[in-house]
């Protein structure tokens, strides 16, 4: 009955909106001219202030016109984000490592399915932030430099791969209905926005016409033209002195007129305000808002467009431009079905049961399995799950944040690497080993917590949960938790707790591994867009040591000197009376204590699996972090933090087989500490099923097939300055020095052999396509997936890339199986860009290479062909 009532409320909300058009007809039954006329009629009924308000992301209701409020801001980078339970896929850089375009389509489809489920679930209420159908993803900026903290959100360093994957993601998000979009996809951030994070609000990216056309724009062109993305987001930065969101040359002349983009443009949040406030491109917000509107920005994520009333008074813009922007936004709502009866939509049956459903979890598992890249294997992998004693060591082995990355939903059943290995392997021990970096606390591990003081007591803490923001009365649920590390973004500790306000009490004992100084921290993920916060109280040895009411300045940590390893009574009381996003009980123990414990644990095992790397607390968007190797979300070094390097060095001295598993959103340069590792895997931030996927690969039940979407450089010393946007000496396309692992690299448990590459012709005209055919043979005794990569080397004129990826095929081959693959290169794929930024197919000598990895140009000659005739502009 409750479900029926909610659905009825949703129907009522959508039917209210039909009053905007004065009729109850499905828009897909009308001509574009009829729809435009209806929209214009609605706009004409609005006052100018009402129109201006509709151009901001929190568009208010206009009750007299029957127009509901709508919050345009939603995120879906690797799963629906920031609105409670949803499927959490690997971070975008991990999805890119699959090199699997159809998979990205399926991921996009899940994002919009779950967005629809959330949207319908809000029936009868104003749509909250992150509850709508306008998804501000994907991020298709080029990951030009591994130091960029937000590079993890992208599909890597290559324009072709980015366009291939992004196109499928957009098409998956938007659905296959010929008129109604399942959700709007919004490629971002247009354009040349790839760090640094510090100073991003005023940064000026100086980009040559060649690099803009050759590297930074192709993916945006593909997604707005071929994939027909509904929207486009302009970025914070300037491009050659003009703020992106004020650039009529780019947004109007290039995107709308030359590319033919028909959708709407939204600003990055507060980017319109930055035009005057940070760039000082305009004298005040009235001028800045007018600059953005005149340039073609339809929707302001922020409130700077409120100044458009002054812009109009000062004749800085026109009412016609205001109406044009609003028309585009209302048309988007029409195409999403928001202005029609619910019965018009082919998506009306989507319900809450779709959220992180078993089918979606299976897709997340498949994505994680395909994303993991095997970088080294001296024959130790796969492991023997039934017979080998495995020690799981490292700070990222049991951390929820490392699964979810940034811009994420809340996983209903997250599986950490430790959980996954324990479920698959017979004999598993564990030690944290180190912190991520000195001064960065980590969740207190499960082997340091006991429900009772007596030796041998069960690990973990006794938990009591209350369905109210009070600890009075009888708990609604009681259980034992292994640690306190919860993502609470619009959810409670358990689905059984139905109230938006709730409380928890955990009791037990902390068992320090050695005497020394310990800092305990209650890390509450404070919401940045709310007004109320959660509170907590921490007791140690029955003494209140921390009381925090969520006010700025309230202490969240306390240091203790423990004289020995005796257990200490601990109690944490948490009141979720606000809107904060998570809580973890963390610590900073003596480094030597963690190291010694790890060495003792590993010494008893047959094989060590060391989980090391980074986390979204170290790399990400505009982080308030300053420590060695990290600055404001970006990195200043490619090395592992020193604490983890020391851990690997100590483990290496045991002379046991060691598998190093990297978790990161960017390339990490493993130093000499890992040179003797028997195996290395890159797992990225692998999503809700990441631990299960890793365990299946370690055990050999899944054959690794991931490929690097970025270059793993040796050091930042090999790179140009971070702020230099020239592509010279960047990415595999322009970098010709030695690297640790090249773009496109990835090993398998199988062995594949390629035949001779054959071309349909060795001489062609600039207007003709080219076919390239090759056979691939699985010469091993194990079924595996091979990723065949086709690379083009254009004539090596000034500014030409050394190589460009132009084809990808993922194929599964049984033992002994051979398959013939054919790639088709269009004239556009064989085009090059000159120094003026003009793209054309040009006469000259070209070469093609195919294989399971980027070719070594010093060892491979490729297959040559020649293009003849006059240059053909593209």
TrEMBL record:
Entry's Gene Ontology BP terms: arabinan catabolic process; xylan catabolic process
One Pfam family per UniProt: PA14
GO terms assigned for molecular function: alpha-L-arabinofuranosidase activity; beta-glucosidase activity; xylan 1,4-beta-xylosidase activity
Keyword annotations from UniProtKB, A to Z: Glycosidase, Hydrolase, Signal
EC number: 3.2.1.21
Top-level taxon: Bacteria
EC category: hydrolase
Signal peptide range: 1-22
This protein's record includes keyword Ribonucleoprotein: no
Gene3D superfamilies: Glycoside hydrolase family 3 C-terminal domain, Glycoside hydrolase, family 3, N-terminal domain, Immunoglobulins
InterPro entries with a match to the protein in the record: BXL, Fn3-like, GH, Glyco_hydro_3_C, Glyco_hydro_3_C_sf, Glyco_hydro_3_N, Glyco_hydro_3_N_sf, Ig-like_fold
Domain (PA14) ranges: 456-603
Membership in a protein family: Belongs to the glycosyl hydrolase 3 family.
Name this polypeptide is given: Beta-glucosidase
Native organism: Granulicella mallensis
